[in-house]
Amino acid sequence: MTNGEGYTPDDEDDPLERLDWHADGEDELDDAASGADGEFGAGGETADLDEDDEPVELSEREEQERAFLDETDWRGEADRVFDDLMERVGEAQPEPRLAPTRRAAELLGDVHRAYPVVHLTGTNGKSSTARIIASLLGAHGLRVGLLTSPHLERLAERIEIGGEPVSDERLVANWDDIAPFIAIVDAELEAEGEPRLTFFEALTVLAFACFADAPVDVAVLEVGMGGEWDSTNVADGSVAVFTPIALDHAARLGNTIAEIARTKAGIIKPAARVVSAIQAPEALAELERACEIQEATLAVEGQAFELTRNDPEGPASRLISVRGIAGTYDDLILPLRGAHQGENAAVAIAAVESFFGGEQSLRQDLVEQGLVAASSPGRLQRIGYAPAVYIDAAHNPHGAAALAEAVPEAIPHSRLVVVLGVLEDKDADGVIAALAPVADAFVATQSDSPRAVDAFVLADRITELTGRHCDAFDRTDEAFEHARELAGAEEGGAVLITGSITILGDAIRIARDEDWGRVDG
To answer: Cα separations (Å) of 218 from 32, 141, 237, 280?
Structure first.
């Protein structure tokens, strides 16, 4: 079937009814769509109407309550939610367990089963691929919930509904509604001598609740770390997606690519459709083994689907063509920088084909719409002009190598100053080695994370590895100002801020406050 005859949404036809694989979950989906959000108290707004649809006169107390809600500082309340979560064990120390997250979700009425799930893991490219998948599904008429991590500035960035971060008001309402159930699970864990729900476990439950509250038609979940025991794995992904697997988080996931792939393969569920980017042979062997055990189908880039064109279309976008699992899609505009984003888009298209059954091509115009609307904050994102300033979340050697490969076409420059900050559990030497060939100068800095490598220690290491002097600043604002001065000394100079996601939020905020120019996205 040609892509002109592919799946298309119809205003009178629920797209989910075309999914033969989700029949067993129809009751849950129907419940969510028909207002089961009241189960945990965070349902959508309802009108003040009586049986005859006439406006109901509010009592004085009700008017006072409404006025209070209207005047509530929801941004401040959302910050309070983040503070509550930050009191828990952080994301760098996940607990290898699923039972507590599942227990909390079940207490809330199985909120993790209220919608079908596309589940993603890998070492690099997860967030970008997840965002492209969500955008493509949205173009097909579905309301999509998206969970990614980490955030750049505010917690709500991690939980999107319909292409927008969840509102502060809904974030707060859902957190306050689930907090008593989180407390129950915390108490049960402490009684058994185990740690309370961690930051990411509690966040995962919050995301599930927000999705059920919306409600969404499908959730796209990015794992926090690994896969097998990541808290998102309590959901049953009908589609499991694997971006390139490389060495990262070795202390938690394993010292070899095979070990890491084995842990990540834990997201593969019985009879799932599995989509994978090109992998190292040892990683692919683990995915094939897991698929055989779970009787899942496996579509691998380069075999079942492939990227047939991946050309720059100016510095800020690409022109790609994809031979998908079920159809071909030519001359697509992807508004993201870097050749690796073309690879991510090919995987995303194959994942969406798999979500709709894997046997019917998608409509070309809907694929075009989905890709054009895709964004990936913090991934070669431009945040400043005169001089040009870019940020990128490359925090390991594999990601830094992809970034370095993208620099020549994505960042036109005569002199590139790289501002680098890394965390203690990362391979700083590998990141430095990958970026050195494209960096004309380095500036070392550190975030306020307790895991941040000291800026002066990092600068010494950069000097040792590159043979070039490196200035150091323990304040990010001073590092950014110095780098902009170095880049601005020569016409066409640019700044690239990278190495740790924890410094990117600072860069965006300072760029906005100091008016470096328009922030992309």
So the answer is: 11, 11, 10, 30
Nearest alpha-carbon partner for 459 in 447, 451, 468: 468
Identity at 102, one-letter amino acid code: R
CB-CB neighbours of 35 under 10 Å: 12
Which residue, chain included where needed, has tokens 């790289």? 418
Task: Give the burial class of 110: count Cβ atoms within 10 A of its Cβ; 0-12 exposed, 13-18 middle, 19 or more buried.
Answer: middle
pLDDT (tens digit, 9 = 90+) per residue, 290-310? 999 999 999 999 999 999 999
* Tally of CB atoms within 10 A around 457: 13
3-state secondary structure at position 309? strand
Rg (CA), the chain: 23
- β-strand pairing of 328-334 with 318-323: antiparallel
Q: Which two tokens stand for residue 117?
A: 């799930």
Neighbours of 201 (CB within 10 A): 29
Query: pTM value?
Result: 0.85
* Burial zone of 357 (CB within 10 Å; 0-12 exposed, 13-18 middle, 19+ buried): middle
Give φ, ψ of 241 to 5 degrees. Answer: -120, 135
Side-chain half-sphere CA neighbours of 514 within 13 A: 17
Strand partners, 165: 160
